[in-house]
Amino acid sequence: MSVSTTAATAGVVSGVRRRRMVRSAWLVASVLLLVVVVVASLTIGARPLSFDEVLGALFAPRHGDVDQVVVRELRVPRTVIGLMAGAALALVGAILQGVTRNPIADPGLLGINAGASFAVVLAISVFGIVSPSGFVWFAFAGAALAAVIVFVVGSRGRDGSTPVKLALTGAAVTAAFTPLITIVLLSSLDTLNQFRFWSVGALVGRPLDTAGAVWPFLVVGILLAAILARRLNLLALGDDVARGLGDRPAVTHALAAVAVVVLAGTATALAGPIALIGLVVPHVARRITGPDYRWVLAFCLTLGPVLLLSADVIGRVVVAPAELEAGIVSAFIGAPLLIAIIRRAKLAGV
Amino acid sequence: MTTPVIGDGPGTTDAASIVAEGRHRRRRRAVTVTAVLAALIVVAVVVSLSLGATGLGLGDALAALVGRGDRLSDFVVFRLRLPRATTAVLAGAAFGLAGSLFQSTLRNPLASPDILGVTAGASFAAVFATLILRVDGPGIAVAAFAGALIVAALMWALAWRGGLVGYRFVLIGVALAALVQAALGYLITRADVRDASRALVWTVGGIGDTSWPAIGVVGVAILGLLIVVAGVSRRMPVLQLDDDSARSLGVDAGRARAGVIVLGVALVAAGTALAGPVAFVALVSAPIARSLVRGGASALAASALVGSLVVLVADLVGQYALPGGISVPVGIVTGLIGAPYLLWLIATGNRKGSDG
Q1: What's the Cα-to-Cα distance from B228 to each of A238, B97, B205, B260, rounded to whole Å?
Q2: Does domain B15-347 have CATH number 1.10.3470.10?
Q3: Which chain B residues in 337-356 lie under 8 Å from chain A, judged by CB atoms?
């Protein structure tokens, strides 16, 4: 009797261990993929460079070498911004999906991008700010404002925040900001001209000091995500079960709200509103690793940047010598991916 | 039946006659509401004809309408203001009716035209036609109509897998909307900034520069759809039931529902082709109409009229009633009013926030 129980336990333990090994192997693979994409992002472009040249530009600077200037002034900033924004977007998507238990949660759908956009429009038109690094704090404030509205309005009422209600609130918040944005844009061609390039979402033309300004927020966001992982797992069982297991859902909600504001603000400040990465990456991660948020969030950290940087690199190649913005390409990669996921998934579970 | 008698009839305790009485009363109310709404629309149209930069009195406007105006008032009324008012009435009716059709068949607040992919498709096609093909007037309307139907059909095809499930439909809509938004962003960033500004007006719904040819093309489509909807409206109440109950009444609910949605999509496409995606008209008209008619399940006619009235009034507000004398496209007015209204509905809302 006791022997067989031990054997069964051992079997379970070894099964768990095997699962963990498989997941770890996938995680390592995704890190390697990220390295490959980063190298591609540094070398591919209108001026193709070898890896040696890139290394030279980074570690053995020569004065007046145009190739090196390209690496340092263009390639490195957009790669760094892609890494940061991609990670932030994917994490914010996963956290939103977890806390709202809604498979289609995403900063764009929940109105957060609209809030950030509105703030940036104000920055351009009212405060006369013209550089993307000046947009940062406005993007943050707008994202936070929208997130607060969505969470407060969406969690009122007897049932609290149901998925449908949150999605509807997000749509309403977007709809509330859109006419305000449009009024400003229609009254000033200059503002429209600035805003349209910001609003497609891109990694290019964003100076590195933006990254320098917001990295502490990204760090805070990642730490919060790490804290949230276990809580999101509990929340997935439903508020009542989570409460029964000794968790306080209200605390999870509050932490998640802070994480969402911080991460969405970071991503939007860095790259502008970028659609679908936050929506798609967590779904891809879940397909690889299952529903455990500790792993989903880890994969978001690698796959988010992989997707965003790939989009950026592809955008440099497909219409060369011109470029497509990363926001446009990522929508064109993300949408078919999302459709494929939706079509394959069993609907109850999506 | 122990239902208390609500009526002034002399003690009609007979259940059948109570039901008949109630039905009769509802019908009377519906007729009254419809008549009042129609009268209000006429008033709003006449007011819109008399307002504007060229000061025509109400008398001048009316005189022009009945063919007794001078050349100036004829020009202003028939070339500038009547097309605009006609556009508002037609597009508003299309949106209002479509909203009513969607809400009563899908019973899903997310099934607004935006989510159904119609708006995105129409916007992209119209902007493409403006910026790349460089057509105007009827050309834009036709392009928008085609774009709306193509994207809606694509959505349908992608979401269909042995049936149509709400969530899959919504998700596919989200994916396609993001795709179209990206393509739109591409067009807008590559265009001359002045053209981009014009295209932007279209994407928020502006009825300022419509012309008779465009109205003719789309108006015929809308009127045709109105007639078809009137034809099928008798069978609409069955679709409020769940599929099994409907089947027991001999209606294949799935197919009937799909048919109604096709009609709704076509209506939204036509309205959007004419006026651009005017926000929230489809969403708010049906609830307003239902509360006016009270109890009438779908209140189709009233929804269409409420839609017309909303667009007319919103356009008047956008043109003349804003502080500082600025004038904005009608879609901005409806958005500014509709979005907070929707938020309020959600915040104060019913159990699941699902009947908004």
Answers
A1: 46, 12, 26, 10
A2: yes
A3: 338-340, 342-343, 346-354, 356
